[in-house]
Amino acid sequence: MLKKNNKILAIFLAVFLCLFMMPFGINAKASTDQDYFTYGAGLSEAQLSETERLIGLPQDQDIKRLVVTSEDFLKYTGMNIQDSSLFSSAYISRQSAGSGVHVYINTPDNITQIKDHQYMNAALTAGISDVNIVVGAPIQVTGETALVGVYKALEDAGYTLNKDATKTATDELIVVNEINQNNSNNANFDSEDFSKAIAEIKQQISEIADKDSITIEQITIIINNVLNEFNITISDSDKDALSQWLLDFSKLDIDWNSIGSQLSSLGKVISEKADDIYQWGNESGFFAKLWEAIKAFFDKIFG
């Protein structure tokens, strides 16, 4: 079971981070050379040193260090989180165009929420591409700080981010994981298939020409059809939550052609890449296990 979970989790983070730049335009002055280490403001000096060790932060390279604060959380997600609750960190290295995204979580026992294939799926909302990322934390946290750190690093490098999209991507994580938790004992629900279904639903929405006219009723029809295709059964309340989030998704000002083309291959990525990433993680010790569920979101420690 652990091996299966690690395969699934390795994919989710990679896809979440596979689209961040492309749909929204890139500043011509953006740097692809600078590596970054972003860390939560809540870390003590001892915890920071331990995090660097856990992540395997290179000591002989030019790495720019950025602290992730409550102001960053508010800026990128719209959420008010105290500095003292921010712990998870990320080592981010930009890659050349077409390199793809590679993500490894060093501390799967400490990054406790959101399956990686869900994280990957949300990337199709936020829009991340061509970056290597290693995530870790010295204590058990949910992991949002690492994601916000990626946002901050890429913007610092000169990339133009769509704040509505980063917030909507965060909302996706919350909604999708609530649904996963609500269906943890549902025999007609598979988390990996659900992520594939979400990608298919978003692709179909991306293909609607006049998105300003999209209604909840249209989205609900798409949801029902796709869930039936994947033999997934969820409650009406879960469908309502999903449709409300997808309505926000449909209103984003993004490059829908780019989003649609990458969504079309996401299901295949989820199925085929898990073994590759798991093998790397098994050999190196970097298993991906991020955010298995966001439950009682504001009652937990935010990483």
Fold topology:
Layout: H1 2-16, E1 35-40, H2 45-55, E2 63-68, H3 70-77, E3 89-94, E4 101-105, H4 116-126, E5 131-136, H5 144-156, H6 163-182, H7 191-206, H8 216-229, H9 236-250, H10 256-263, H11 266-284
Parallel strand pairs: 1-2, 4-5
Antiparallel strand pairs: 1-3, 3-5
Helix pairs in contact: 1-4, 1-11, 3-5, 4-6, 4-7, 6-9, 7-8, 7-10, 8-9
Structural account:
With 303 residues, the protein is an alpha/beta fold. It has 2 domains: 2-161 and 273-299, no CATH class; 164-271. 50% of the residues lie in helices and 10% in strands. It has 11 helices and 5 strands; from the N terminus they run H-E-H-E-H-E-E-H-E-H-H-H-H-H-H-H. The chain has helices spanning 2-16, 45-55, 70-77, 116-126, 144-156, 163-182, 191-206, 216-229, 236-250, 256-263, 266-284; strands at 35-40, 63-68, 89-94, 101-105, 131-136. The chain has a 5-stranded mixed β-sheet with strand order 2-1-3-5-4. Helix 4 (116-126) packs parallel to helix 7 (191-206). The two termini are 25 Å apart.
